[in-house]
């Protein structure tokens, strides 16, 4: 049986999913895709998990699809048909996903970055939509990348396939924050600490709110948003949060240190 390529651990309400296939730059091989989906499902189904951290071993976060597996394969067999499921799990996760990048992301790897809620990258990390340079199209990842980044940047970077740095990735909206490599883990931990303070159901509903189509005008959305707000104020979670605030204590959902 081959060694696992994705490691899973849980501590203090945080599930850490680690890509560990440095021999091929954490490429999205069939084994890695399968194990990644299994780990995401495990984290999303576990009520004790509040936040998911996606990280990696080796110098590269993810180089995209495993081209050795894709070479010579027929249209239904290169793995791209499975990849939308991974992006969908990340994008629609009811639990916030924080991605930690200590190194480069390419193609499908950038798709996973875009599908995450918060992304912290080391200053030396680089990015590229390299698909056109091998004669393919960044089709699947476009569904999560295009809502994130500026249109002119998408036009340029999708068409040229050029490499860009973490500072530019932050400017165009692809990632959340850039930090020095030695501070990367501290910055990820800072976001995780902030996220676990939020109510689990409130975080899931807020993610849905952020992803939903925007109403034509504020007036068109006030009724639905008022109903949503009132429902959460009256909910068990909302009442616990209000009570905890009044009593100057942490809400029951905050994991013990």
Automatic annotation (TrEMBL):
<dbReference type="InterPro" id="IPR051683">
    <property type="entry name" value="Enoyl-CoA_Hydratase/Isomerase"/>
</dbReference>
<dbReference type="Pfam" id="PF00378">
    <property type="entry name" value="ECH_1"/>
</dbReference>
<dbReference type="InterPro" id="IPR029045">
    <property type="entry name" value="ClpP/crotonase-like_dom_sf"/>
</dbReference>
<comment type="similarity">
    <text>Belongs to the enoyl-CoA hydratase/isomerase family.</text>
</comment>
<protein>
    <submittedName>
        <fullName>Enoyl-CoA hydratase family protein</fullName>
    </submittedName>
</protein>
<dbReference type="GO" id="GO:0003824">
    <property type="term" value="F:catalytic activity"/>
</dbReference>
<dbReference type="InterPro" id="IPR014748">
    <property type="entry name" value="Enoyl-CoA_hydra_C"/>
</dbReference>
<dbReference type="InterPro" id="IPR001753">
    <property type="entry name" value="Enoyl-CoA_hydra/iso"/>
</dbReference>
